[in-house]
Amino acid sequence: MDMIDRRLLLAGAGLVGAGLASAAGAQSTSAGNGVSAEGAPTGPDPSAKNRLRFAVIGLDHSHIYAITDALIRGGGTLVAVHAGDPKQLVPFRKRYGDVKVARTEEEILVDKTIQVVASASIPNLRAPLGVRVMRAGKDFLSDKPGITSLDQLAEVRRTIAQTKRKFAIMYSERLEVRAAVKAGELVHAGAIGRVVQTINIAPHRVSAPTRPEWFWDVKYYGGILTDIGSHQADQFVFYTGSTEASVVASQVGNFATPQHPRFQDFGDMMMTGNGGAGYVRVDWYTPDGLPTWGDGRVFILGTEGYIELRKYVDIEGRPGGNHLFLADKKGTRYMDCSKVPLPFGPQFVTDVVERTEVAQNQAQALLAAELVLTAQDKARTLSGARPPVQGG
Asked: Which of 28, 30, 186, 187 is the most buried (most CB within 10 A)?
C-alpha cells in the first residue's frame, strides 16, 4: 500500500478517539510521520548491532509511533510508557503490546535500567522534559519541535554540557523519508558537486476536526517556523554541511484560519550558512483533492548538478512517494527510493551505546532548532495576515 488515507488509518487504529490524530491527512507509509500500515516492528532490523531499553513519556502527537518504531528497529526494547491522558494509552498499547504503564514520569526517570526516553508531548513541554531526562542520566529523543523558545534552547545546551547526555530530535522528514536519505548519500558522495542552496517547500493539511486545542495556539507549538519549519532547517543544515548559519529574513501570517487567531498558517524564511544558502516555505494549505497530507518538495542545487525530491506524491506522475530526480554532467535520471533502508534507528541506538554521533550530530541538530527559533522571533507579520493574539 503506497498511499493511505491517514485519517482512516488513524481511526482504524483507534487514534482519533484518543486525540492522537494530530497529523491527520493522507500519509505515505514511508514518510516517517505517522503509523505504518504494516504494523509495529517485531524486532530489530538486521543492521542493528546494539540493544537498549527505552521508555516513552508523552503521547500528545502521533509522531510518537514513528519514533517508537525507529527505536525498536534500532534494537530498542520498549519497557514503559507514561501519558497525561489515559485514553492515549489504549491505541499505544494496542500497537506495542502489554507495555508497563508508569503511573508517574518520575517512575521512569528513577529506573536506572532505562537508557533512553522518547517523547511527543505538547511541544512547549518537550525541552523541559528533556532537561529532566538528561539530569536523570538518560538520553532523550524528542519529536520535532524539540524546543520552542530561545530560553529553552540555552537551558538544553547547558544541560548537555553538564551531563554529557544526548538531546536528539526526530526530524522525520529527512531521517524517516527514504528519498531524503538517498539524497544525503548522493550529496555526500559528491554527485552534484558543492551544494550551493537548498529550497524546501513543505505544505501540510490542517485537518481541523482532528486537532487538539493546543495545536491552534502559538504559545504551545512555538509558531509555524518553529514547528514544521524545523524539518526544513534540519535539511538545510544537513545537505549544505553548515556548522554555522544565520537567518536573513523571515515572515509569517494567518490568511485562512480566522477562527483561530493564535494560529499561523503560512511562513517562510531565508538562511545562510558556511556551507550554502537556504530557503524554506511552510503552510497549512494542502487542498482536499491532493491524495496525501502534503506535496513536500526539496531542491538541492550543486555546482555540478541538482537533485529534486518529490517526497510524498508526484501529482499526475508516478504512483506513491519517495521520488528522486537527478541532473548532472552525464544527463538526467529518476530513482525510485521506496526500498532505500532507513538507518536512523540502528544508528541512534549505536550512538547511545557507544557514545558516537552517526545518526545525528548534536551541534547541527540544535543549530537547526536555533535557526527556526530565531526566524520565528524576528519574523514580520505579512500585510493582510492576522497577527497572533498574545497570551491566554
From this structure: 28
Q: pLDDT digit string (tens) for 312-351? A: 999 999 999 999 999 999 999 999 999 999 999 999 999 9
- Condensed to tens digits (0 to 9), the pLDDT of residues 177-224 reads 999 999 999 999 999 999 999 999 999 999 999 999 999 999 999 999
* CATH of region 3-171, choose from 3.10.50.40, 3.40.50.720, 2.60.120.10, 2.160.10.10: 3.40.50.720
Amino acid at 383: S
pLDDT band at 29 (very low <50, low <70, confident <90, very high): very low
Among 59, 204, 160, which residue's Cα sits nearest to residue 362?
A: 160
Cα gap 344→72, rounded to integer Å:
11
Burial class for 190, CB neighbours closer than 10 Å (0-12, 13-18, 19+): exposed
Give the list of residues 6+ apart from residue 226 with CB closer than 8 angstroms, or none: 123, 145, 148, 372, 373, 376
Say if residues 121 and 212 touch (Cβ distance below 8 Å). no
Query: Which DSSP category does 296 fall into?
Result: -
Distance CA 297, CA 382 (A): 23
Report cis status (omega within 30 of 0) of the bond before 44.
Answer: no
Distances (CA, A) of 100 to 40, 82, 89: 17, 9, 10
Mean pLDDT, residues 92-104: 96
Q: What is the CATH number of domain 174-343+373-381?
A: 3.30.360.10
Residue that has been written with the C-alpha cell 487567531 in this structure: 261
pLDDT single digits (tens) 204-217 = 999 999 999 999 99
Contact 354, 82 (CB under 8 A): no
pLDDT tens, position by position, 300-309: 999 999 999 9
Q: Enter the DSSP assignment of 334.
A: E
pLDDT (0 to 100) of residue 10: 36
The amino acid that residue 63 corresponds to is: H
> Which grid cell is 27?
500519509
Give the integer Cα–Cα distance in Å for 149 and 389. 17
